[in-house]
Amino acid sequence: MTAQTPTTAALQSAKVAVLGYGSQGRAHALNLKDSGLDVVVGVRRNGPSWDKARADGLKVAEPADAVKDADLIAVLTPDMVQPALYTDAIAPNAKPGAALLFAHGFNVHFKQIAPRADIDVVLVAPKGPGALVRREYEKGHGVPCLYAIHQDASGKARDKVLAYAAGIGGARAMLIETNFGEETETDLFGEQAVLCGGATKLVLAGYETLVEAGYQPEIAYYEVLHELKLIVDLLHEGGLAKMHQFISETAQYGDLTRGPRVVDGDTKARMRKILDEIQDGRFAQEWVAEYQAGNGNYRALKNADLAHPIEAVGAGLRARMPWLNPTPALAAVPTS
Ligand code: NAD
Ligand code: MG
Ligand code: MG
Ligand code: MG
Ligand code: MG
How many domains, the chain? Predict the structure, then answer.
């Protein structure tokens, strides 16, 4: 944690270009502007984000134009798009001494982007989705952020990265210093082993176990998917202690005696192997190759996930629970 609360002072007379206007891009651009910074959003003229950013009251420009004057360039497009964006729009146009900022270290850490030696390279990764980063800022709060310095060409990289973190509201909450390797590897591990990969495959295995044993699919859905939120909310708010406080004694005893049989030493050994593949670059190499080959395997796997019977059962049940207000589910992955 930082000793004193950073301010936006180091960027007050700077021009900031935010490339990409998705989850993080929109939140960062609006928060920085409301913090009094000079912000331009760099997006493609014919893309959907152009009109959206303008309607939100922001200046917009093509990425290459946005970069030309910028003292700080925030790269907030999807990770796989960033290397070409760097080569085409950033490298030929960035001012010497400008700062290049990422919200995830993937491309720098795995050497998909080799930044020019005369620019600063930093990272600010909010620990929450863009919508939360914006909402908390509007309430006068902030979402905690990780920050890191990969390259300090100007000698002012630290001042700039802390000013950016202050500008998006993160400094109001908490800033934790890290490095690109730690941010990238822990982020990938979390989403693969626990949050996305681990949690969904645990749910599907539980659902299949119940349905194959003859129980009603609707009841299986409630027990292993719907109610997961109640438990996650308790963990999120108060850790293991709060969960134990709110679940029954029977549930606690079942948890403590059966949980370790589901997730055991073998599971942990496989997690370690997944971490090894992240650390030695095999995962990054595989994903970049898949993306460059047109995402055929990625699309097939995603379509298979979305074709799981739990999806149809869940859609029917959620339609009777309007308070959930779900965003429309994808029927299939777009092919373009
Ligand atoms: P996103 O998919 O929501 O938005 C990407 C935006 O980039 C699009 O809206 C569009 O404006 C632009 N874009 C897309 N393709 C482009 C192209 N070819 N050229 C130029 N612009 C293009 O992305 P995101 O989820 O906000 O992720 C941005 C970065 O933030 C990534 O590095 C990601 O790892 C990181 N990050 C995301 C989150 C999150 O909660 N989503 C959290 C922390 C860090
Ligand atoms: Mg993450
Ligand atoms: Mg991630
Ligand atoms: Mg129950
Ligand atoms: Mg129970």
Answer: 2
Closest Cα partner for 128 from 137, 120, 116? 137
Q: What is the pLDDT of residue 2?
A: 52
* C-alpha to C-alpha distance for 97 and 91, rounded to whole angstroms: 12
Residue 69 CA to ligand 2 center (angstroms) comes to: 31
Which residue's CA lies nearest to atom 27 of ligand 1? 78
**Atom of ligand 1 minimally distant from the CA of 63:** 20
The set of residues, in sequence order, having a beta carbon less than 8 Å from that of 79 and lying 6+ positions away, is: 104, 106, 107
List, for residues 64-82, the tens digit of each pLDDT value.
Answer: 999 999 999 999 999 999 9
- Nearest alpha carbon to residue 75 among 33, 42, 120: 42
Of the listed ranges 98-112, 209-223, 314-328, the one predicted with least confidence = 314-328
From 127, 160, 178, the end of a domain falls on: 178
What ipTM was estimated for this complex? 0.95
What range defines the domain where residue 94 resides?
A: 9-178
In a domain, 228, yes or no: yes
Distance of CA 109 to the CA centre of its chain: 16
57: three-class secondary structure by DSSP: coil
User: Residue 290: which CATH number?
Assistant: 1.10.1040.10
CA gap 241, 239 in Å, rounded? 5
Is there a domain that residue 3 lies in? no
Of the candidates 226, 7, 228, 23, the one whose C-alpha atom is nearest the C-alpha of residue 128 is: 23
Q: Could you give the CA distance from residue 84 to residue 80 in angstroms, rounded to a whole number?
A: 8
**Ligand 1 test: best mutation among 24, 100, 108, 109, most atoms within 8 Å of CB?**
24
Q: How confident is the model at residue 159 (pLDDT cuts 50, 70, 90)?
A: very high
24 lines ligand 1 (CB under 6 A): yes
Q: Measuring CA to CA, which residue among 13, 65, 49 is closest to residue 130?
A: 49
What are the pLDDT digits (tens) for 139-158? 999 999 999 999 999 999 99
pLDDT at 320: 93
193 shares a domain with 172: no
